TrEMBL record:
InterPro entries: HemY_N, Mms48, TPR-like_helical_dom_sf. GO terms for cellular component: membrane. This is HemY N-terminal domain-containing protein. It comes from Phreatobacter stygius. It is found in: Membrane.
Length: 549
């Protein structure tokens, strides 16, 4: 609006001035080359303005002619850059589509048209990766590292290549350099932390957590949780060598993450070892309310040294009352009751779970209870066979793998705080457990040998006394002594029950017609499993029983 007003004012002034000049009498005389030219003042002014305009146009034309080569070069350079950017765009699209030839062609065009563009170097590196040219990719990434604007991007590319070569030392050095160049680079900070966790460098990992929090790479809650995990890992490493230091670390970890079961278990054990029973009980009870776990129950049961088995059972019952009807509480009571030979209490705790959907650990406890309570080895074998088909129990699981103990970092990826207490997909390796088909009828012909069927099963949770397995001697079922068929054979490594169980089918004998495949067996069975059936021609082979000879 102001511009329009100013234009109108200027136009009015010019019109007024032109009218005033036209009203004034007078002539302008020009003498040039012996000629006299006369005209009025207004015509003279117009001629002067036209001459000025012509002169200015001539000057502009001369300047354009002088600058035209430079202008033409600038236009050509701009066009070249546009073509280079178009080549980069098409190359990145080709890489995303997995078109190696198109990616290489566009990378070549981009390098020719826009060699200094940062994306050109990235396109060259990715095209080399797509073609499998690792040396070319690393060379492109090193060129990027030499430039300040692409240094972190080049370091990330070199880090990926080092990981592909499984060069842990180079990968860690590259990640540390990237953290120094850009503390806020999340990938670099995470890579350094994972490398430190995999190497067991807990102090270095704690320092990395502080740097990440200061750089706002992680928030306060994540920093507290990761710090608690690292303190727990450090406490576990020092529990045997330096109990006071381990206790301080575990207590600090519990303060940061009360729900962290391993921290509470370590703090409870070490506090109980120092005679501070109240503190140990308080720490374990707080963690149990959030996440009931067998390790907490075991630590709570053994908090007071010198307690009898009955006293330990009472302590476990007190802990289980904090989470009524929770399966872990009932299993803990059952374990302690069996150890205390209080079979009525064991039945009260376990029968409710056994009536619904018993897990493998429950089946093993019921087998031990049957064997200890009444020497009913047949019933024990029923439960052992049932354990093979029972649902699995929760375990410490990370990245699809299960471990008997909690670990601060994944053995697959190295990431911290990924182990969760849940039903695993697969378990880490352990000794094999071979189980005979106790449901096979000895009077029926055996089926031909078939492929081994592997059934994955959880190892039973260790009770307060790992070595307190019941011992049951075979009783004769006929006038002459008869060795009972074996239920379980263990491999030479006895400490841990393997997660993998192989169930072979007996081989055919005497050319007998194979019996049809059995479906799912429903208990109770027709005949007790410890009945060997009719005598065979050969004397039965002696085997070792799971619960004793």
């Amino acid at each position: 609006m102001v511009g329009v007003i100013l234009f109108l004012v200027l136009l009015a002034v010019l019109a007024t001035g032109a009218a005033w000049v036209a009203d004034q009498p007078g002539t302008v005389t020009v003498v040039w080359l012996g000629r006299h030219i006369e005209f009025d003042v207004l015509t003279g002014l117009i001629a002067v303005l036209v001459a000025a305009a012509v002169i200015m146009a001539l000057i502009a034309l001369i300047k354009w002619l002088v600058a035209s080569p430079r202008i033409a070069a600038r236009v050509m350079h701009r066009r070249k850059i546009e073509k280079g950017q178009e080549a980069i765009t098409r190359g990145i699209v080709a890489i995303g589509a997995g078109d190696r030839r198109a990616a290489e062609k566009h990378a070549y065009d981009a390098d020719r048209l826009a060699p200094n563009a940062p994306l050109t170097l990235l396109l060259k590196a990715q095209a080399a990766q797509l073609a499998g040219d690792r040396a070319g990719a690393e060379q492109a990434f090193r060129t990027m590292v030499d430039r300040p604007d692409t240094k972190v991007l080049g370091l990330r590319g070199l880090y990926v290549e080092a990981q592909r070569r499984t060069d842990v030392v180079a990968a860690r050095a590259i990640a540390e350099e990237a953290v120094k160049a850009s503390p806020s680079a999340t990938w670099a900070a995470q890579a350094v932390l994972e490398q430190q966790g995999s190497a067991g460098d807990w102090d270095g990992a704690l320092a990395s957590i502080e740097r990440q929090y200061a750089a706002r790479v992680i928030d306060k809650d994540a920093a507290k949780r990761l710090r608690a995990v690292l303190l727990t890992a450090k406490a576990a490493a020092l529990e045997e060598r330096d109990p006071p230091a381990a206790k301080a670390l575990a207590v600090e970890a519990v303060g940061l993450a009360p729900e962290l079961v391993p921290a509470a278990a370590i703090a409870g054990r070490l506090a109980a070892a120092d005679g501070d029973i109240k503190k140990a009980s308080r720490v374990i009870e707080a963690a149990w309310k959030i996440a009931p776990h067998p390790d907490l129950a075991e630590a709570y049961a053994h908090a007071r040294h010198g307690d009898s088995r009955g006293d330990q059972l009472k302590r476990v019952e007190t802990l289980a009352r904090l989470t009524p009807s929770h399966p872990e509480g009932l299993l803990a009571i059952g374990r302690a009751a069996i150890d205390a030979s209080d079979f009525a209490a064991a039945h009260r705790a376990l029968d409710e779970l056994a009536a619904s959907a018993p897990t493998q650990r429950l089946c093993l406890l019921m087998a031990e209870l049957s064997a200890k309570e009444s020497n009913d080895q047949g019933r024990a074998r029923e439960w052992m066979a049932r354990a093979l088909r029972a649902p699995r129990d929760p375990a410490w699981t990370a990245d699809g793998q299960a471990s008997d103990v909690w670990l601060p970092a994944s053995p697959v990826t190295g990431k911290l705080d990924v182990f969760q207490w849940k039903v695993p997909v697969a378990e880490l390796g352990g000794p094999m457990l071979h189980v005979d088909d106790v449901l096979a009828d000895a009077s029926e012909p055996a089926v031909p040998a078939g492929p081994v069927v592997e059934i994955v099963a959880d190892a039973p949770q260790a009770g307060p006394e790992p070595d307190s397995k019941p011992e049951i001697k075979s009783e004769p079922v006929a006038p002459r002594p008869i060795e009972l068929p074996a239920v379980v054979e263990t491999a030479p490594e006895p400490p841990v029950v393997s997660p993998a169980v192989a169930v072979p089918e007996p081989a055919s004998e005497n050319g007998a017609k194979p019996r049809p495949a059995r479906g799912e067996t429903v208990f109770p069975i027709a005949r007790a499993p410890d009945d060997p059936g009719p005598d065979g021609n050969a004397e039965p082979k002696k085997r070792m029983s799971f619960f004793g000879n």
